[in-house]
Amino acid sequence: MVNLTSTNGFLLMGFSDDHKLQILHAILFLVIYLLAVTGNILIITIYTLDHHLHSPMYYFLKYLSLLDICIISVTVPQSISNSLTDNNYISLGQCILQVFFFIALASSEVAILTVMSYDRYVAICKPLQYGTIMNPTVCRHAVAAVWVVGGLSGFMHTVVNFSIPFCGERVVHQFFCDVPQMLKLACSHEFINEIAVAAFTTLIAFICLISIVFSYIRIFTTVLRIQSAEGQTKVFSTCVPHVCVVTFFLSTAGFEFLRPPSDSPSAVDLMFSIFYTVIPPTFNPMIYSLRNEAMKAALRKLLSKEFFRGKCI
Question: Which Pfam family, an example, fits this chain (predicted)?
Answer without folding.
Answer: 7tm_4
